[in-house]
Amino acid sequence: MNRKSNYWGTGRIGKSILLFAPMMMLIMLMLLGSASGGDAATQIARLITIAFFGAMFFLIIYTGKTDKWRAVAFIVSALLFCIAFIHNLILERGSMTFSNAEELSCTIPFCHIVTTMMIIPAAVKQTILFPGSLVEGFASISAMFVIVLCFSIVLGRGFCSWGCFYGGWDDGTSRILRKPVIKKVNNSYKWFSFAMLIVMALWSAEAAEPTYCSWLCPFKAVTENERIIDTITLIKNIIFTLTFAVLVVVLPLLTKKRIQCATFCPMGALLSLFNKINIFEVKNDTSKCIGCGKCEKACPMLAIEKRCPTLTCSKCGKCVDACPTGAMRFHIKGTPIDKHTTIARTLFIFPAYTFLVTLCGGSVANGLALIINLFI
Amino acid sequence: MVESLLIGLSTSASCVAQCGNIILSIIMAENKSVGRSYGLLGGFMLGRLLIYSGISAVISLIDSAATIPASVTAVSLIAVSAIMLIYSVGKTKQLCLGHRFTRKIYSACHGRISLLAFAAGALSSLNICPPIISLIASSIGTKAVFANFVMFFIGTSVFFLPMPLIGAIKNTEAVTKTGRAAALIVSIIFLAKGIGIIING
User: Which positions in chain A have a beta carbon within 8 angstroms of at least one beta carbon in chain B?
Assistant: First the structure.
């Protein structure tokens, strides 16, 4: 069976352009709508960013390969986000590091992962852990909450592969080697992230601080971290560096799995629960499945068991791309598995890609402008 | 006594945040029926009550706030950490660091999980947390110290009561594996806390 026939528009340039046009308009609106002026490098960067995101979306639609082109956009977004973020920090406060006083005065940027640690303190102690920022230039806490709620409902854990500006790091490192050095990774390790969610939420309520962010987050190593002034802050920084090196670089490199996202991130665990109420899913059409197991091997999130995607699926589409018979497919809950496959895929990719451009588009353009400025 | 009950009720959330992850991880890892889970919670609570009774007896005798030295707290936290580590690693069937040693100890305690919960409850209650400090401060000089501690215990137990309902979740594999992993994380946190107290004196 020709698997390409699963995708409406695959290889058909006219239909692909028809789907691509509205997304291109959205991308232009998001990247040009609120921006005005800027130097030559900024304007060139904006145009390149628009062309880049547009091209990736077109290729997703035209080739029918979801993960292949998504990953390019996702990884580039993560790298350029960090460059732009660090530059922004240096502009705002002169350093990549922050002090305890700056943390207490809420002048550090708000991160979506902290929401997992705000639930229990808010529910049982009527305390809002507030490490967010209202400083101009960073997202406000209310805006971030609305965005988190929106993507949780619309994408479920799809956010981990389509919007998270950290996820691109281990997605990138997990693709460096052609074959994994550690071939077998037990799928049960994914439950560790749920344990992290429970313990971190309770521990944060006790300590009245977002403990995961304060003590464990690997991405502190590439965004911002506490200034080293004593033994405690030194230990914290060593932990950040170690967790980044082990969970984001070494283990994904050796296993070809997104170890940090799949086994450690409490936000991923929380979003997995939203998969239950989310209408989009990746499903195996068992009538077409030949049991080759390629989907299970390909899945970077340890989410496929017995050839069926489970609760922790991040809808990256890697298993869909890997499936030789087209049995693995995007699906809308409540509809027949063997019908409307392309519509389901398209309906999911539109909001997912829109979130990616919304959350990372500006940062990608800024990061690119910085790089261009180095050369001109 | 009413004041002690109110202190307990108002600080109950803190108690759950502090010690809830210990019993919650055990309940999840066992994932027994709701009734058996309440049995585990009962063991944990009994351990807490025993230590509270001991502390109240000491306060009645010496009438002083200096009842729990920091070293005792540190040792109790490290002991809780050891219990949780043995529980987490000993329960898993996969080969891992310290597996044989912990599995032997765990096997020796086989069938006595309530006893393990009891020990964890008792040891974690030796921790000098803000709720206990508030209670001790309000109890010194009163004649009903034991009754105050009992009322405080009742007040702080409220938020623990729904925890065994997790036994009603059907996906047992997910719950038990999450519980074991949580026990491992809790053991690391308590170990770090204990060492932190020893270093800071």
Answer: 120-121, 124-125, 186, 188, 191-192, 194-196, 198-199, 202-203, 205-206, 311
Q: Vertex A132, ends A127 and A133: CA angle to 5°?
A: 135
Q: Select the residue from B178, B185, B191, B197 to test the A interface by mutation, using most A Cβ atoms within 10 A.
A: B178
Q: Please answer yes or no on whether B21 and A186 come within 8 Å at the CB atom.
A: no
B chain contacts of residue A205, beta-carbon cutoff 8 Å: 13-14, 16-17
Contact B126, B51 (CB under 8 A): yes
CA distance B61 to chain A (A): 31
For A48, other C-beta atoms within 10 Å of its C-beta total: 15
* A113-139 residue pLDDT tens: 877 777 777 666 666 665 555 444 445
How far is the alpha carbon of B174 from chain A, nearest alpha carbon, in Å?
Answer: 7
What count of Cα atoms within 13 Å lies in the side-chain half-sphere of residue B47?
A: 26
How far is A225 from A238, CA to CA, in rounded Å? Answer: 11
Taking phi first (over 0 means left), then psi (-120 to 50 degrees means alpha), and beta for anything else, what does residue A39 get?
beta
List CB contacts (< 8 A) between B17 and chain A: 120-121, 124-125, 202-203, 205-206
DSSP label of A137: T
Burial class (CB in 10 A: 0-12, 13-18, 19+), B66: exposed
- How large is the average pLDDT for residues A259-272? 94
Identify whether the C-beta of residue A89 lies closer than 8 Å to the C-beta of residue A83. no
Rounded Cα distance, A186 and A305, in Å: 10
Q: Which long-range contacts (CB under 8 A, 24 or more apart) does A126-135 make?
A: A127/A205, A127/A208, A129/A204, A129/A208, A129/A209, A129/A210, A130/A106, A131/A103, A131/A106, A131/A209, A131/A210, A131/A213, A132/A106, A132/A108, A133/A106, A133/A107, A133/A108, A133/A109, A134/A106, A135/A92, A135/A107
**pLDDT 10s digits, B52-105:** 888 888 887 776 655 667 787 788 888 888 888 887 877 665 545 455 665 666
